[in-house]
């Protein structure tokens, strides 16, 4: 069963996937939960590869020995002689990957195809060689917004995919960038994680194309999922249990870990202050977090993003100036008793990203947090993966997509020009504040 509570689909003929730029496995987890069996996982970062090794041995087709054999690999070397491609990559159903963000992000100077870190050409080479029935590529929203910046590059990529037999709408260079972008949304669009059970905005650009031969055989077109049915997830609802557990150890103690004297702040006070702030934001329809930022190895210590993001986190009762130690190594003054509120642990950041609780990140704290912050939220990958599976296994379509609202018109509506790090105003209904008993049950009954 996936972290979302949905049973993993089982097919008579298993669906297969190869993933490039796999990172710590966010997209892989989601696609696994959507019913895809991974034939290979390609990632160059040693810490992320160690995380994959620690988690995938129980997946179909894997074993501890095969997981342990995973080594860091440059995607440019994948499928080259001696590149170490995994076994059985024939009749592939899906090629997926999260190509590097810097070429299309503000922080990366938006050099696009002129950036040596641009791996789209390598992805296209692998697609041409493996000929998967479907392709799913994820990137930062900067490749889409504003449309005029990379519209020519995107049109070239789609043109190459069309030449390889993938179904892509006709797009003319003579059209305005806005019109080209509107038509491209049939296959390449922005998706916000907050619409899929993730308590975080996290807008991402996702490209999905299906090969014409697969569509002809299926007789079912790809339909984008637009939203997970049900209430929107909130920070307070997702973190209440773990935050209370962290504070319980210091329930009647002070910042030094000693029994509190009259008037001194206690772990219970820390928890109640956080709960009040996070609950108030949920009641105001602002219970979704700003986008987590993982940064790079050139960056200093881990924190929760730029100044605007830190202010948004402060409204949610969280200090975004760093990342807390795990509970067994807690420094109460540093990790919990901060004026703005407790810092998040890596485990809590992973919850904000939608990872399952048993996913084990490897490396030291900063390396672990960067893996989390750079990840693609598994619930979003699962949603898109199920939509792809619904084309490749049309007999399971209703079962695969029953929990989602679908964009049956095929073209996404215009999205607001919202700054990525601004705390969004959700459409979640107002809820009652948790009772003074501050129990997890109260939060659930409150609808958080």
TrEMBL record:
Question: Where is the segment annotated Disordered?
Answer: 428-448
Give the top-level enzyme category: transferase
Organism superkingdom:
Bacteria
The protein's Enzyme Commission number: 2.1.1.37
Q: Which GO terms describe its molecular function?
A: methyltransferase activity
Catalyzed reaction equations: a 2'-deoxycytidine in DNA + S-adenosyl-L-methionine = a 5-methyl-2'-deoxycytidine in DNA + S-adenosyl-L-homocysteine + H(+)
The annotated regions of Basic and acidic residues compositional bias extend over: 439-448
Which Gene Ontology terms describe the biological processes this protein takes part in? Answer: methylation
UniProtKB keywords:
Methyltransferase, Restriction system, S-adenosyl-L-methionine, Transferase
Q: Does the keyword Methyltransferase apply?
A: yes
Please name one Pfam family that this protein belongs to: DNA_methylase
Asked if Cell wall biogenesis/degradation is a keyword of the record, the answer is no
Q: Which residues form the active site?
A: 101
Family membership noted in the UniProt record: Belongs to the class I-like SAM-binding methyltransferase superfamily. C5-methyltransferase family.
**Entry protein name:** Cytosine-specific methyltransferase
The species this protein belongs to is Streptomyces bangladeshensis
The organism's taxonomy opens as:
Bacteria, Bacillati, Actinomycetota, Actinomycetes, Kitasatosporales
